[in-house]
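Service request form, structural biology core

Requester: graduate student, group of Dr. S.
Request type: structure prediction, single chain
Budget code: on file
Notes: please return the result as structure tokens.

Sequence provided:
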Amino acid sequence: MPFTALLASAFLHALWNALLKRERSPPLAVAGVLAFALLFAAAASLASDGPGFATPAALGFGLAAGVFEGLYFVTLAAALARADYGVVYTIARGGAMLLVWPAAALLLQERVATRGALGALVVGLGLSLAAGRSARHSVSRSGLAFAAACAAAIAGYHLCYDRALTVGARPIPLFAVALATAFPLVLASLRSGIALREAVACGGPSALRWGFAGFLCTGSFLLFLSGLAAAGAGVALTLRNTSVVFAQGLAFALGERPARAQLIGALLVAAGAALVAAG
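Core staff response, request fulfilled:
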């Protein structure tokens, strides 16, 4: 069942990221999406039974995950404002996997099989194609840099979530605390005066879109955390990274026409993820 939850999480994650790319101002939209996601997570947390954190360490790792979540939302919005959705998504998700696997082996003592190592090499090849010469012709260097920073943030919160669950956190309160920590960081990244005028100009229709995306975001992360608790950081992130295949289909729906090398790169990332999971 954790595999099913992680695959469902992968699709929902790719979908809400694609909705974010459609927004006129991704930095403002990501703050709106995060606000709604926080409301949904807080409501779900209040409805759940029992303590959310069994140990102080669990709460500490939840707060640390929130810092990385804030960096993730900020760098994601910045990357989407500067680069195609398909390129950003592939680099962010695949790059995070390359960081998480060695960290999980060194810090969490998770097993790395030969097939898993081969899968990581395939992911690396896929990333080199996705961010290669054909991508750089249409994507700014700053867009690629923010996508790489987003990958590092994703790796950070995955590891923190894994440790929090291991030492006594429950998924729903954990996600709510992380979002509450991330939200001020996202607000601080906005220029408040400009953001306020843009928010007023966007009005009700934008709020409805942000609310829907926030609902998808919450559902995606809660499914991911339930899978993470059962599968471990490396396998969970790997299966979630099959979302790069969903992302390429959504990129076409957004009107993007990725180069052949970028499509091959995305497929290689997904294939490498499958090898790692099988290892």
